[in-house]
């Protein structure tokens, strides 16, 4: 057997490109406090890699609770909002529609609706602040997954999630 020591290993080589890293992007009438950042995927012959969240560029609140959601084709998760946490959702695959609605009466974007089509063709990190209503539908033909890295833990004793039915007429969007 060849002898090997820790000194034989070489330092890692970072990406040498200038692809923007977690670059902010905006949509029309973007709801106040919502943030959208483009995720960049780097591939090599083994596969690819996408950074979902990082404190490299700016300080961030560490994610104390990270979970992966799988969504069946056409399935709907809506409507919800949180009173304390921000959601930080990374979409990298599938064809997912996220709909956001602003019901905060003191917000400059009160009653604005944002429709975001995200997933394989539009990889993004979406930050949704407290009290912004949101829902998600998988519009693709296969299951899609996404990762949530909220700012708070899910506390089973005191869940921070308020819900109303997905077809409530008070929100001007119909899932199909
Ligand atoms: C994360 C978590 C959830 N749960 C329970 C609570 C629910 O009864 C069930 C499903 O939770 P989920 O958060 O998936 O609930 P949804 O309302 O479908 O939320 C999903 O869709 C909306 C639109 C999103 O924004 C969430 O990020 C996404 O998770 O698991 C737990 O018991 N422990 C946990 O750590």
From TrEMBL:
Pfam families attached to this UniProt entry: dTDP_sugar_isom
InterPro entries: RmlC-like, RmlC-like_jellyroll, RmlC_Cupin_sf
Any single GO BP term: polysaccharide biosynthetic process
GO MF terms held by the record: dTDP-4-dehydrorhamnose 3,5-epimerase activity
SUPFAM superfamilies in alphabetical order: RmlC-like cupins
Entry EC number(s): 5.1.3.13
Enzyme class label: isomerase
Site positions per UniProt: Participates in a stacking interaction with the thymidine ring of dTDP-4-oxo-6-deoxyglucose: 154
Reaction it catalyzes: dTDP-4-dehydro-6-deoxy-alpha-D-glucose = dTDP-4-dehydro-beta-L-rhamnose
CC terms in the record's Gene Ontology section: cytosol
PANTHER family: DTDP-6-DEOXY-D-GLUCOSE-3,5 EPIMERASE (PTHR21047), THYMIDINE DIPHOSPHO-4-KETO-RHAMNOSE 3,5-EPIMERASE (PTHR21047:SF2)
Biological role stated in the UniProt entry: Catalyzes the epimerization of the C3' and C5'positions of dTDP-6-deoxy-D-xylo-4-hexulose, forming dTDP-6-deoxy-L-lyxo-4-hexulose.
Protein name: dTDP-4-dehydrorhamnose 3,5-epimerase
Organism lineage string: Bacteria, Pseudomonadati, Pseudomonadota, Alphaproteobacteria, Hyphomicrobiales
